Amino acid sequence: MTTKELAKKIKQYREDLDMTQADLADKVGLERATITQIEAGNRDITSLELAKFAKIFDVSADDLLSEDEKEKSLPKPSAINIPEFNREKFEQVLLYILEKCGARPNVGETVLYKLLYFADFNFYELYEEFLTGASYRKIQHGPAPCEITDVIKEMIDDKKIKKVVTEYFGKPQKKYLPLVEPDLSKFSASEKEVIDRVIGGLSGLNASTISDFSHKDVPWEITKEKEIINYDSVFYRTPPYSVRSYAEE
């Protein structure tokens, strides 16, 4: 591993732990400016410093010095393809999903987020175009749309949806129910077909099962915790997640 590669890895570990350079410097016993040099790849790390970094990050020194096995085996997507968020389309997709399955006992916030994710990413894999252009972040329970909080709040204020808190298998569950019908004229036939397939295939799963399912999708697997998932990573998907027949192309 080169100095630059190790520097990048140290920076990623630090950011994953929500630590500042000053925080890390204090724990290692170095100046913040030294951490800046290390993360820029402009200063070599001593064996003692490497051991300290490994202890702070709760990994072995070998883990720091070796390339991650998952990164070795999976192709690396290109730079993040940042889409333009289509808020109106996102609202309509949300309303359509809620109309179709929002009242089901298992469809709470977690399931809803995953249905939106698979609709967006499946459509992009098939047509190389964005459905809603929403950005999805990798969090503990699977991909979550970054824009969802603001959209939900505005839709509640506009009386397009309502929030209800229910109990599902003894645990509180946040649900959203539609108060207006979706505008189907906003969808092309191919868009509606992709959304319908996602609803038909995944809306019967509970939060735990659909979260586990999303964790094995390559776009989620190769993304660092709390980072934005790259749409282009769908082209590295494996069965049963890939929805495109590449052999025929």
Can you count the helices?
12
Between the first and last Cα atoms, what is the distance in angstroms?
37 Å
Order of helices and strands: HHHHHHHHEEHEEHHH
* Helical proportion, percent range: 40-55%
Major sheet: 2 strands, antiparallel
Task: Name the structural class.
Answer: mainly alpha
The best one-word shape is elongated
Number of strands: 4
In brief, what are we looking at here?
By secondary structure, the protein is mostly helical.
Can you tell me about this structure?
- The chain is mainly alpha-helical and about 250 residues long.
- It has 2 domains: about 5-65, 434 Repressor (Amino-terminal Domain); about 85-249, no CATH class.
- It is about 50% helix and about 10% strand.
- It contains 12 helices and 4 strands, in the order H-H-H-H-H-H-H-H-E-E-H-E-E-H-H-H.
- It has helices at about 5-15, 20-30, 30-40, 45-55, 60-65, 70-75, 85-100, 110-125, 150-155, 190-200, 205-215, 220; strands spanning about 135-140, 140-145, 160-170, 170-180.
- It has a two-stranded antiparallel ribbon with strand order 1-2.
- Helix 2 packs across helix 3 (about 30-40), helix 8 (about 110-125) crosses helix 10 and helix 8 (about 110-125) runs parallel beside helix 11.
- The protein starts with a helix and ends in a 28-residue tail after the last helix.
- The model is unreliable at about 70-80 (pLDDT under 50).
Key descriptive features of the protein:
about 250 residues; 434 Repressor (Amino-terminal Domain); 12 helices; elongated
